[in-house]
Write a structure and sequence with these properties.
About 13% of the residues have low confidence. With 233 residues, this protein is of the alpha+beta class. Strands 1, 2, 3, 4, 5, 6, 7, 8, 9, 10 and 11 form an eleven-stranded antiparallel beta sheet that branches. 29% of the residues lie in helices and 26% in strands.
């Protein structure tokens, strides 16, 4: 009887092994595939998280620009007059950060704004392009405009294109020009040191939203301000 009972137990265990072996083998075979799927889903989840963060930054920048500008910086040009340059952000020094300026006459190497701004149009020139001899920087109305270098005010007046503008003579044949101002705070013949507030930004002349047209010339020819101004672009 003991042997018969033992045989019955062995038979039952063998039968259970046969019944369960197939599912166990199939499950074990699926494990590598499941691990690969988990890894793939994890990678996709990280990518989605990164894209969401990038989208949030883009939306934040868009809202800042839209609030700041309230419209296009430059009115639409007729078809075929040449493309505008790509928009890119420009960051002025942080509030409270000290800025060192020269006291006497100096070439225009300083960024002319304390506010954060967005360069909506860069310097454009050459065959087939619509000439634009400077930078258009979007800033809020009334932002102080500072002299990029020490010099003498050559002109301070009104122009159909640039509205209220200021032209400063600097050493070595350099000039700096500031256009579309809402107010001009200097007069022709006046000496201004680098960093002096010479006007307030506006939207005068051919403009539809507040911005500064910043131009640098040498020997009468416009040069790209980014080649001389000490500022991160």
């Amino acid at each position: 009887r003991a042997l018969a009972g033992t045989g019955s137990v062995v038979a039952v265990l063998w039968l259970l092994g046969v019944v369960l072996y197939g599912p166990i083998v199939r499950t074990a075979a699926r494990v590598p595939g499941m691990e690969r799927e988990i890894a793939r889903l994890g990678a996709e989840n990280r990518q989605v998280t990164q894209l969401a963060a990038q989208l949030a930054r883009v939306e934040q920048r868009y809202e800042q620009v839209r609030t700041m500008l309230g419209g296009n910086i430059v009115p639409p040009r007729p078809a075929g007059t040449g493309p505008l340059s790509v928009t890119y952000p420009v960051t002025a020094p942080a509030p409270g950060e000290p800025r060192r300026y020269e006291r006497g006459p100096s070439i225009p190497t300083h960024w002319p704004l304390d506010e954060r701004g967005v360069v909506t149009r860069g310097q454009v020139g050459g065959a087939g392009d619509d000439p634009h001899p400077g930078l258009d920087v979007a800033v809020p109305m009334g932002t102080p405009i500072r002299a990029a270098g020490g010099g003498t005010i050559a002109e301070a007046g009104d122009d159909p294109e640039y509205g209220r503008y200021i032209l400063v003579n600097h050493p070595d044949g350099y000039q700096s020009m500031y256009g579309h101002a809402s107010r001009v705070l200097v007069v022709a013949g006046q000496f201004v040191p680098a960093g002096e507030v010479i006007g307030l930004s506006g939207s005068t002349g051919r403009s539809t939203a507040p911005h500064l047209h910043f131009e640098i010339r040498r020997d009468g020819r416009a040069i790209d301000p980014r080649s001389i101004v000490r500022q991160e672009f």
